[in-house]
Design goal:
Number of helices: 2
Shape: elongated
Structural class: alpha+beta
Organism: Flavobacterium polysaccharolyticum
Radius of gyration: 14 Å
Largest sheet: 4 strands, mixed
InterPro entries: RHF-like (IPR036567), RHF/RaiA (IPR003489)
Oligomer: single chain
Protein name: Ribosome-associated translation inhibitor RaiA
Pfam families: Ribosomal_S30AE
Number of strands: 4
């Protein structure tokens, strides 16, 4: 799957990009028709510790899924986003199966 990582207000290091790629690739075992995904990472300028925001947009034929999570670290936010997307993709797959 093609994963586009967009960093807003900071520069992203290679290790984080690789982590995101591996985590997004795991989604393909839940739904194999995923075309691409866009991962937007933002740092909010607040005194709050949970200032890392990750938005993941997944493109599947006929639909797009968008998940937004805010956490202390980008890794945690990516994990939570991926878990939400797993549930969405499984739901989508079951919905399509029931129509066939």
């Amino acid at each position: 799957m093609k994963v586009n990582v967009h960093a807003v207000n900071f520069t992203v290091d290679r290790k984080l990009v690789d982590f995101v790629q591996v985590r997004m690739d795991k989604l393909e075992k839940y739904y194999d028709k995923v075309v691409s995904s866009d991962v937007f990472m933002k740092v909010e300028k607040t005194s709050d510790k949970e200032n890392k925001i990750v938005e993941v947009k997944i493109n599947v034929p006929g639909d797009d899924f968008l998940v937004k999570k805010q956490c202390k670290t980008f890794e945690e936010a990516v994990d939570l986003s991926a878990e939400s997307l797993e549930r969405l993709l499984v739901k989508r797959k079951e919905k399509i199966r029931s129509h066939i």
